[in-house]
Amino acid sequence: MQRNDLTRRRGTINLTVLMAVLKFKALGFRAKARRAKTKYRKQIETDDRRWGGRRLKLSGRAAVPIPGEIFGLFELEILDLSTERTSGLDFRIERLPREIGYLYRLRILNLDVNALTSLPDAICELKYLECLTVSCNKLQTLPLSFKKLIRLESLHLASNHFQAFPLVICQMESLKFLDLSCNQIVILPPTLSKLKYLRTLLLYNNKINEWPDALCDLIELRTLWLGKNELKRLPIHFGQLKHLDWSNYPLSSNINDNPLMSPPLNVCQLGIQAIRDYLGSGIPKRSSL
């Protein structure tokens, strides 16, 4: 009987010691996390430029892998995780953790020059996001829930692996800037005309073979890059894009390196007025969708 009591007491002592060890380790982990969080807080800067806010920039060894502690920095408004080369080595983020959705105050997220093949659905929880840059990655699609980013005004997706235009973009009616240059897009959806506030559309270096007539309703466009595509003709109402003026502001628009026949490329290079004259100034304005 005494032996059984001794065994039970030893078991109780061992369990108590084990619990104490586990508690000590947990406290140590939390303390380490707090120290790391404090370290990143010390790196947060206030950005006074147009996209002002509480900003954190991580790159190189500091960003790969992404430190989990930064997802507790709820005050962040600008997070820059664009990569860079250090000492001849590449540091590229291959996966964005779903914890990115915790940073609910983010207005700007920069993920340029990484190796992302997809974006998590959690990114769509960033309801205050205004600018997202994911150029120079390996994206082929966007999450269907992307349309939840109702405040997004600027979307940068250049130099990815898009072969089809991401249709969910057509539901993001707050967009003013869209860059899909240097992809492999062939067809533009007519529903892109829903983006009534779009002022800049960059589609340089794709495989686009037609400009749908419905897109002539994008009358707020100030900048349009269509160079280095496969366009053979422009729709009859293309002249409605009256704010395009690459005859006086060459960088505002580009249509070179297309096999254009109607109008010919030499006419298109003269600007939107020359295109309008060629297509016929008497053409009635098409009704908006």
Write structural notes for this entry.
- The protein is of the alpha/beta class.
- Helix content is 19%, strand content 12%.
- The chain has a ten-stranded mixed β-sheet with strand order 1-2-3-6-7-8-9-10-11-12, with helices on one face. It has a two-stranded antiparallel ribbon with strand order 4-5.
- A hairpin with a 2-residue loop joins strand 4 and strand 5 (89-90).
- The chain is elongated and about 65 Å long.
- One of its GO terms (cellular component) is cytoplasm.
Write down how many β-strands occur, each being a DSSP E stretch of 2 or more residues: 12
> How large, in whole angstroms, is the Cα Rg?
27 Å
What does the overall shape look like? elongated
Q: How many strands, which pairing sense, and closed or not: the largest β-sheet?
A: 10 strands, mixed
Total helices: the number is: 3
Beta-strand proportion: 5-15%
The helix-and-strand class reads: alpha/beta
Q: Strands of the largest sheet, in order across it?
A: 1-2-3-6-7-8-9-10-11-12
* H and E order: HEEEEEEEEEEEEHH
Proportion of residues in helical segments: 10-25%
Question: What is the terminal-to-terminal distance?
Answer: 90 Å
Poorly predicted regions: 20-36
What is the residue-averaged pLDDT? Answer: 82
